[in-house]
Amino acid sequence: MRDAAEQPKLLGFAGHRKVADTEVLREAIRSEIVAMKELLGKRMIVISGAAAGADLIFLKSCVELRIPTIVILPFPEERFAEDFEDPEEWAMGQRLTGVALARYVAPGKNKSPEAYQIVSRLLLEWADAFLFAWNGEPQKGTGETGETVMEARDLGIPSRIIDTHSLAARWETPPDPNRKARHGFHSRADLLDFLDARFSTRK
Questions:
Q1: 151-168: average pLDDT
Q2: DSSP letter at 44?
Q3: Assuming Cys at both sites, which of 41, 53, 62, 177 could form a disulfide with 67, CB separation 3.0 to 4.6 Å?
């Protein structure tokens, strides 16, 4: 049996769709991903949505840093495409999700914003730590980043927040270096087998 320190740990991510300065935020996110890998260990795996904006900046950074990713989509691909205003951003999203370890479609709602809330809660179910790109403003509706920040805090999930205005990062909930992986799987294959069964099939 693999030692607990060698278990894969999952880093979740959530952020805003509207991003003022893509390149500046990308640099901040890259820096935080590197730091999170130091915290969670060399077997860290990312689990994220793939909405326009911050999600895609995050996923692109993970690909560049060679961090394996698991993507959960709110809708099947044909419906998901409708939520992208920029065809180039949609094409980038297809490329990024296409190179993920696995890609799943969340069960349930077929409309926004409820479908995005379901994705966020699935990420919260498995993440060992969370990284957010958040403007710090109170949530204004279902499925928004602020809602996920508050739910992560209530669950005690170690959470690091990048302020999308100042780009400064802070801990919302500090990490416990001795905390074991929440999901308890001993290998990447075990984790993917579980998720395959949970979602029935990869998309």
A1: 95
A2: -
A3: 62
Q: Any idea where the domains of the chain sit in the sequence? A: 10-199
Supply φ then ψ for residue 55, to 5 degrees.
Answer: -55, -45
The number of CA neighbours under 13 Å toward the Cβ of 111 is: 0
Cβ contact 36:129 at 8 Å = yes
pLDDT in tens, 44-102: 999 999 999 999 999 999 999 999 999 999 999 999 999 999 999 999 999 999 999 99
Residue 14 has pLDDT above 90, yes or no: yes
Residue type, 139: Q
Identify which of 147, 128, 142, 164 has the alpha carbon closest to the alpha carbon of residue 47.
128
| DSSP E strand stretches across the chain | 10-15, 45-48, 69-73, 102-105, 129-134, 159-163, 169-173
Tell me the per-residue pLDDT of 107-122, one tens digit each, with 9 for 90 and over. 876 788 899 999 999 9
The answer to whether 133 and 25 have CB atoms below 8 angstroms apart is yes
The one-letter code for the residue type at 58 is: F
**Greatest CA separation for the chain:** 48
The whole-angstrom separation of Cα 86 and Cα 10 is 30
Query: What is d(CA 182, CA 201) in angstroms, rounded to the nearest whole number?
Result: 23
Q: How far apart are CA 60 and CA 92, in angstroms?
A: 9
Looking at residue 60, its pLDDT comes to 97
